[in-house]
Structure formats: structure tokens, C-alpha cells
Amino acid sequence: MTDLNIIRGLGNGFDEEVLRVMKLMPEWEPGYLDGKPIKIRKILPIKFSLPD
Questions:
Q1: pLDDT score of 47 more than 90
Q2: Measured distance CA(39)–CA(28) in Å, rounded
Q3: In the prediction, which pLDDT does 30 show?
Q4: Domain limits at 5?
Q5: Mapped to the 3 state alphabet, what secondary structure does the chain carry?
Q6: Residue 52's pLDDT is what?
Q7: Number of separate domains in the chain
Q8: Spatial CB neighbours of 19, under 8 Å, sequence gap ≥ 6
Q9: Which of 1, 14, 40, 48 is the most exposed, fewest CB within 10 Å of its CB?
Q10: pTM of the entire predicted model
């Protein structure tokens, strides 16, 4: 993955933690078009659940 962006951040360290965890993810398989690898844009929603 390249060019990681936070679209709607929460602040207070949450954004940094999301980026840290995303960088730890294994390599993704590229998309293919006509048998050739191409770049794909993916929006990955992430939910936080905080204790009450």
C-alpha cells in the first residue's frame, strides 16, 4: 500500500494509530486489467469501539 490518507480523522492519537496498523498489514495483491497489474484505490472504513 502506498499513499495512505485519513479522510475523516478523530484526532487524539487515533489517526496515528490507524496509519501505524495499516503499515503493518501484509502486502496486498495488485488489481489486474488485461493481465497487467494496475493501481487500485480502496477506502477502508475503520471503527473504534471504546469502553463506556
A1: no
A2: 11
A3: 86
A4: 1-44
A5: CCCCCCCCCCCCCHHHHHHHHHHHCCCCCCEEECCEEECCCCCCCCCCCCCC
A6: 79
A7: 1
A8: 4, 6
A9: 48
A10: 0.68
- Report phi then psi at 48, rounded to 5: -105, 140
Asked whether residue 52 is domain-assigned, the answer is no
Model confidence over 3-44: pLDDT tens digits? 888 988 888 889 999 999 989 999 888 899 999 999 888 888
Q: What nine digits make up the cell of 20?
A: 501505524
Residue 8 lies in a domain: yes
Asked if 39 and 31 touch (Cβ cutoff 8 Å), the reply is yes
Would you say residue 49 lies in a domain? no
Q: In degrees rounded to 5, what are phi and psi of residue 36?
A: -115, 140
Look up cell 488489481; give the residue: 31
